[in-house]
Amino acid sequence: MGAYSTKFTVTILGSNSALPANGRHPTAQLLNVNNHYYLIDCGEGTQMQLRRYNLKMQRIKAIFISHMHGDHYFGLVGLLNSLHLLGRKAPLSIYAPPQLKAIIDLQLDASGGRLQYPIHFHSIAPFESGSIAVHLDKQVKVECFNLKHRITCYGFRFTETEKEYSYLPEKGGPAGIMVEEIPVLKQGADVVRTDGTSFDHKMYTLPPPPQRSYAYCTDTLPLDSTVEFAKGADLLYHESTFLDKEQQRSKETYHSTAKEAADVAKRAGVKRLMLGHYSARYTQLYEHLSEAKSIFPDVILSEEGLEVEIN
Amino acid sequence: MGAYSTKFTVTILGSNSALPANGRHPTAQLLNVNNHYYLIDCGEGTQMQLRRYNLKMQRIKAIFISHMHGDHYFGLVGLLNSLHLLGRKAPLSIYAPPQLKAIIDLQLDASGGRLQYPIHFHSIAPFESGSIAVHLDKQVKVECFNLKHRITCYGFRFTETEKEYSYLPEKGGPAGIMVEEIPVLKQGADVVRTDGTSFDHKMYTLPPPPQRSYAYCTDTLPLDSTVEFAKGADLLYHESTFLDKEQQRSKETYHSTAKEAADVAKRAGVKRLMLGHYSARYTQLYEHLSEAKSIFPDVILSEEGLEVEIN
To answer: B149 — contact with chain A (CB < 8 Å)?
Structure first.
């Protein structure tokens, strides 16, 4: 086991833009943080894709929806319904633009039923600038920031929740630490008693590995602000609907080219870039890859079923 | 070419009940009447299934939605959106319970766009009894009748539109028919002139083949009224969510067993029965088939991709 003993991966369930084609599905990704699942966008067919790749849907704790174009959420109500039919009782959090709530409610109402588990709907109301923390649990912290698309659209940055220091008595620090003092050391703080005795935490502990992070940016024009919000991420997913030769069309439709995605990655100093949200016009994707690689070295293509380790 | 020179088939896009499983999809069927397409229900993933089986989605003229449980319509808005993205201009008719309109509108509104083609939404408001004619064009006549499920649910009967008689001069009727009299003969009527001369249409024409019909019934308890509405159909699709051993569960959830579907088929005197809307609990379906065949001889199982000729 390396520095990272916990899992932090993302699995691609859909890599295409609006029109499903060429065997590619509308957008959905599953983030696995230590076997806790977080779903990012939920295009039509997401529940089938989860089954296809043997990803247990009941493990999903929270769902994040970037914006209200259908290729990013048309699979949601079907998934909610299936979770219910499969006996879910655990609450589910949904983070999404405000309009989504009425859309879910109307469809649940029309079916004459109700879900047997609570949904905690967290409306992300439009905000001017900066980023807002939307979710925090023992596994992951999620921040949300603005992208620029035809309608309000959010990017998300997922960062591992800060871990405690590991307490290692075998490190051989001076004897005399009391059991109730260990939590102090695990916070990375020194023990200082009222009588002035002190114990250096570094003699007893190992710091946790750095917190890994994943920045998810679709659908959007390339932005300076994205460079800021994705700064230093271990993995950046940046949409690349088009190739450079379609730059004009890309701009008109508020999307990005592979080259522009790579430029954002380079300026943000991320470790790795993943492309996606491909236009249906492309049957092959090698040009996306080579175009991006001409700007930034470590690029991968998102494709259905691919599980990417983030580190 | 036999008596029927026009196509009248149904292709199964989804054969399962609420929970997609075992490679089976939620309900959708494509009726092909002389290469005019009619979509019956539209569960999640229908547009992908249309692509998979190379069925040109722009040929769809009308969509019929049986009821407001999601496994029968969650694929609709995605399909409408894709038709738009693919450049549709031709109008599309949708026949459905009234609640569906607001659900479509809300989702289109939220996306900030509008479709480039007109949707003619025909609300099927609840009605007491009998059947109502909902659609008629040159290909097909569609009647709607009540089923009995947890919420309002409609069955549909699709009948070929009445064809003209074929005018066959080589049949050798007496000479002297004028060109403008041919349309009279093609209606199956004799020509009778003001001077009393008459020409027997049977000497010049062949009657059209009988009108074929397809009755579609899901989700529902087995009903006496269905026996009436499906009377003499060339093909009856009757849901068979469960097997006989689950009869109690079937009743509680307002569904039918394979045996009950066969009993309806037998009493309605249909030519052939197709089963479907299988519960996710069944990985194999041979028991559905044998159970139904113990009651009614000509039974087939609906399964994804199957195209059934109706005659």
So the answer is: no
